[in-house]
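Hey, quick one: can you model this chain's 3D structure?
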Amino acid sequence: MQKHSTTARRFSAALVAALLLGAGCGTRGGKATDAAGPPTTAPAAAAYAPVGAASASADATPAPSGATGTPAAGTPASPAPAAGGSSAAIASKTVPAPRAAQGTSSGGAASAPAASGGASPSGTPAPGRGEVPAPGPGAAPGPGSAPAAPGACTGDLSPLVIGSVSTMSGVLGESLSGEPKTVQAWAAATNAAGGLRCHKIKYIISDDGGDPNRHASLIQEQVERDKVIAFVYNAAPLSGFASLNYINQHAVPVIGNEGGSPWFYESKYFFPNGASGFDGFSTWFAVPALSPYDSAKKKYAVVSCIEAQACAGIDAKAEQLAKRFNVNLVYKGKASLTQPDFTSHCLRAQQAGAEIVIPVLDGNSVHRFAKSCDSVGYHPLYTGITSATREDFAKNPLLDGYVGGYFELPWFRTDNPLIAEHLQVIKKYAPDVSPGPQSASGWAVAKLFEIAAQNVSEPPTSASILHGLYSIRNNSVGGLLAPVTYTESVPTAPLRDCFWAALIKGGKWGGADKLICPLKQ
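Sure thing. Here's the predicted structure for all 521 residues.
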């Protein structure tokens, strides 16, 4: 555990420099409101020091910048410019509420309509007011358990207030906003069906804009002002570390993330849905090396972003990971998520003979990367994971043959009834969210929370949600995740970096017919 913390702090310095240089729900009235300002009490200091920064608009578009790169065995790359614009204490941005559920959505209080609930794990209807059992030594959710089916609700119970502090705007907003919006849609559908265990869900989304100080303030605001008892999907790889100490001090569970947050393994109150941070780096190499599609190709190139800790970690461990999976790393470079062109990287990877390119970038950048390589007649195969993939890759002929590795069962596997339900829910409650890796990830985490909340107390408390989480043993959430187990006595143990490998062929997504789990080394 100390190894994770030390390594994360080392990469935090690079993140600080990049940030300094760079860049719902609602009440029934349906009137949008802004969140209140930060609380007067300062957030507790985090294990990773938050970065102070000047104010900027949450909607500002960073100016493009260049990139540098080096052959893997050559001289180091010169530092690439960071994202344009200034990072900031960004005001909590209003997140639109699901269209089928009216109400206020804001970075502060927001109530989201939401869905399935009612039945206890045994299948009996949920008790009415005052009769929901407090956490006790009941049966733990078993392997493969899906959330309990809805039952009849009688009476009114206290609302179940949950939240998300995520990066919904800025350079990473496009890649990270789909997950919380999908949880928001799940909440809307759950409320329409009577609530979760007869509790109506109030889901509050706050946008931290990628700023650590803002993230820490919004976490505290949601807990102390809005009475949030759990965070369900905090997608904040640039800023989430800032809340670590506060979460530890207040024992509020944080369930699910985008896969780039190493601090999820430094506390017993953080619950990853798959391999995260430094433990998830191997997946970038494992996907092409172990999938049935690209395993014969052995010459790899890696181009990593300069904006995030996860990117810095992959860059640092690339040679080690290449050796682990018996492939040759022939080129390694760094780039900004905001640069418009990647031709220099394409030329160097092409000259090095790379057959597979791993662009550790966001989805929009991957489109631009493939276009840049096409301009010089270079057509390698590309690969990535959830946060680096867009569903519309299938519409880009330059990305035919792309292989993605996903910690959640992919969105096109509609043979699983929970995936089919997911597509119906986002179509109705989140029409602006395209079904894809991000929506599938948000959906799996929402369903994981459903299981954890099956014996939620009345009124709901963080302690009862934690009890439900610590009861989960070898549970695949109805086949949506690799089996997860959470233990109270130690900080969350790293999950296996298992994944489903999906392939684009002829303009369509396919594959992902089995879970692949690399051997631990």
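One thing worth noting: Residues 2-21 form the longest helix (20 residues).
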